[in-house]
Design goal:
18% strand, 3 domains, 4-stranded mixed sheet, Glutaredoxin, binds flavin mononucleotide, binds FE2/S2 (inorganic) cluster, Ubiquitin-like (UB roll), globular, Rossmann fold, alpha/beta, single chain, 5-stranded mixed sheet, 422 residues
Length: 422
């Protein structure tokens, strides 16, 4: 097998795909073959880099040169100048608006400087359609660790102690939800992943599933082990075709590798996942409505109690968790509860992913420690309001969230979409 000296990472998130990034992958590959470089240089299709407003994005490793707004016409220059002559293509570098300096490394850009990536750790880094790349970045190690070394109660204790709270909006303790679902005795229990993501302007969950589907599959299996469930369901809106196809590829590979299905890692634990498509009704993101929809009934919420943890899917104990919540689980198992709870604020631990949309300069996806102020997100990371206009309002957390008109004391909590209005 050839060892590649260079990796050309091309964003394969929906935003960049809609601007021909997949055609760029094909063109790069054929040009490399034509020039005889295909053995030493690989082209990798990744998930979203986050800086969607500057897409399509191409990043070249190991130099870490980050190219923005790349077009099909730029591919020749990338090959001839960067790959062959070793000279970065200056006109494709990001120009920092304040200093007007061209920056080649993403970590020098103000968009990335204040970010801390846990849920998005692999997005823009690995090929989401290749399980080997996920495994190379410690993928499925957390699942192996819990099955080999921990009881379900210990897993629940770790997740509780980490302070992880649901990222779907309710902010309920994930470890406590798992404990409440573990307690009842039942012949069958379920893990449901809520990938309905109905909030306007929000695309956090879609990007995680497109960029790192295995992180969600692995966490669902860990949840299954913790609560005593052998079946999982991912409820995802049909308007997310790329996320659905990447999930299907990931599930097929995980089964092939024995990481989903019967006797995972040779243990007594078996866990399988199926995908159910939603029709895109906002209300079906609410967990009881979601469960009715998965059952084939009308997607209407019903009164709680009974909570899904006692009586959920098919009236069996069910833990419903959000995509981003799941994406935090494997790092917590591997790095420990203390590590996770050291990030964020006293009451809100860890990070939060935000989709920045609306009249903001840097449209995209960001992940910041809990407690980061909205001012920092909008001005330092988001680059402020288009044309330097005055701030009017920001809408956070979708219809159930609020419209904030003053930024003085607003800090991030667990809601996810940020939409700026002018
Ligand atoms: C009207 C309404 C819509 C909701 N939409 C979503 C959604 O799109 N995605 C989501 O994860 N949670 C949504 N929720 C929250 C879910 O009911 C549930 O609390 C969540 O999926 C639990 O996962 P978590 O504990 O990981 O946050 C919604 C709640 C309400 C009331
Ligand atoms: S889709 Fe390419 S950077 Fe987000």
């Amino acid at each position: 097998m050839a060892i590649e000296r260079t990796h050309i990472m091309v964003c394969g998130g929906t935003g960049c795909v809609s601007a021909q990034s997949l055609e760029m992958v094909d063109l790069l590959k054929s040009k490399l073959v034509e020039k005889g470089y295909d053995q030493e240089i690989s082209v990798v299709k990744t998930g979203c880099f986050g800086f969607c407003g500057q897409g399509p994005i191409i990043k070249i490793h190991p130099e870490n040169v980050f190219y923005v707004q790349v077009g099909l016409d730029d591919i020749d220059d990338i090959i001839n100048e960067h790959i062959i002559k070793g000279r970065p293509v200056e006109r494709l570098l990001y120009k920092e608006p304040e200093t007007q300096i061209n920056l080649s490394k993403h970590d020098e850009m103000s968009f990335y400087k204040k970010q801390y990536r846990i849920a998005l750790r692999n997005c823009g880094l690995i090929n989401p359609e290749d399980i080997n790349e996920y495994i190379a970045f410690n993928g499925y190690e957390a699942l192996g660790k819990v099955l080999a070394e921990q009881t379900p109660e210990q897993v629940i204790e770790t997740v509780k102690a980490s302070g992880l709270r649901g990222r779907g909006g309710g902010g309920f303790s994930t470890g406590l939800k798992w404990e409440l679902t573990r307690k009842p005795v039942a012949d069958q229990k379920y893990v449901i992943c809520n990938a309905d993501e109905g909030d306007p302007g929000a695309f956090m969950d879609r990007s995680i599933l497109e960029g790192d589907p295995h992180s969600v599959l692995e966490a669902m299996a860990i949840a299954g082990y913790a609560i005593g469930a052998s079946k999982g369901v991912i409820y995802i809106r049909a308007e997310y075709p790329l996320a659905i196809s990447r999930l299907q590829v990931a599930m097929g590979q995980a089964k092939e590798f024995g990481l989903l299905g019967e006797n995972i890692f040779g243990s007594d634990f078996s866990f399988d996942i199926e995908i159910k498509l939603g029709a895109g009704a906002f209300v079906c993101g609410e967990e009881t409505a979601l469960i009715h929809s998965v059952e084939g009934c009308r997607g209407e919420p019903t009164k709680k109690p009974p909570y899904p943890s006692i009586q959920g899917y098919h009236k069996k104990p069910t833990s419903v968790n959000n995509v981003e919540t799941f994406a935090n689980v494997a790092p917590i198992i591997l790095k420990g509860a203390e590590w996770f709870s050291s990030i964020g604020t006293e009451k809100s631990k860890g990070t939060k992913v935000f989709a920045l949309a609306g009249k903001i300069n840097n449209v995209g996806l960001v992940e910041v420690p809990m407690g980061t102020t909205l001012r920092e997100i909008i001005y330092d990371i988001g680059g402020g309001i288009i044309d330097g206009k005055e701030f009017k309002a920001v809408q956070t957390g979708g219809p159930s969230g609020g419209v904030i008109t003053k930024l003085e004391s607003s800090t991030t909590t667990s809601s996810g979409g940020l939409k700026l209005a002018l």
